[in-house]
Amino acid sequence: MKNIVIFGAPGAGKGTQSDKLIEKYGLGHISTGDVLRNEIKNGTELGKTAKGYIDNGQLIPDELMVDILAGVYDSFGKEHKGVIFDGFPRTIPQAEALKKMLAEREHNVAAMIELFVPEDELMNRLILRGQQSGRSDDNEETIKKRLNVYHTQTSPLIDWYKSEGIHHHVEGLGTIDEIFSRIESVIDSL
Ligand code: ATP
């Protein structure tokens, strides 16, 4: 059982690399961004609350995220090979909640993979994605806010996971396949 946290700034390529990991290792995928966008599409209470935060480039409050965590994880059943957490945790309280939820099930996170991409490249990628996908939070103003939120609230998790002894730095520039082979070396070494 190998649970992996795929970590990085908005636009780092977490979703793209997650898809390749799922295919190669048969892991489940928990993308909290996708979970929230689905709630918005279905018009649920959570979706209505989430939309205000997302369109403003802010994080959804930790309590709400932590509330849905165990349910989503347990939906993969007891005998899964592991899941990829993509977009979760984004704050230290979320990382602590994840650790506790997994410990209660005698599970853990085997590795945190930090996809590192320089700021100017992140900006270019997200603006391009906004033009192509029409995602409401991929416009220049909201992107700047999200990058700022990443630096203040999310990046402290790098040191948090270093102190857990499971942080792995991966260069996120290059072709999709080049980046994936760097990730494969980390996973195959676990
Ligand atoms: P990627 O480029 O990998 O798609 P992203 O940061 O651009 O990453 P999502 O992970 O899809 O996009 O997240 C979109 C938005 O959803 C975030 O800006 C935030 O408002 C909200 N969100 C997603 N996950 C969380 C979380 N764990 N805690 C709080 N808010 C979250």
UniProtKB/TrEMBL annotation:
PROSITE patterns, A to Z: ADENYLATE_KINASE (PS00113)
Keyword Transport: no
Residue positions binding AMP: T32, R37, Q58, L59, I60, G87, F88, P89, R90, Q94, R135, R146
Pfam families listed in its UniProt record: ADK (PF00406)
GO BP annotations listed: AMP salvage
Sequence positions that bind ATP: G11, A12, G13, K14, G15, T16, R129, G174
Pathway it works in: Purine metabolism; AMP biosynthesis via salvage pathway; AMP from ADP: step 1/1
Localization of this protein: Cytoplasm
GO molecular function ontology, one term from the record: AMP kinase activity
SUPFAM superfamilies assigned: P-loop containing nucleoside triphosphate hydrolases
EC annotation from Swiss-Prot or TrEMBL: 2.7.4.3
Database matches in InterPro entries: Adenylat/UMP-CMP_kin, Adenylat_kinase_CS, P-loop_NTPase
Catalysed transformations (reactions): AMP + ATP = 2 ADP
Entry's Gene Ontology cellular component terms: cytoplasm
Region (NMP): 31-60
Record keywords: ATP-binding, Cytoplasm, Kinase, Nucleotide biosynthesis, Nucleotide-binding, Transferase
Superkingdom: Bacteria
Predominant subcellular localization, coarse grouping: cytoplasm
HAMAP family reported in the protein's UniProt record: Adenylate_kinase_Adk
Record's function text: Catalyzes the reversible transfer of the terminal phosphate group between ATP and AMP. Plays an important role in cellular energy homeostasis and in adenine nucleotide metabolism.
Subunit note: Monomer.
Domain-related comment: Consists of three domains, a large central CORE domain and two small peripheral domains, NMPbind and LID, which undergo movements during catalysis. The LID domain closes over the site of phosphoryl transfer upon ATP binding. Assembling and dissambling the active center during each catalytic cycle provides an effective means to prevent ATP hydrolysis.
Family the entry assigns: Belongs to the adenylate kinase family.
Protein name: Adenylate kinase
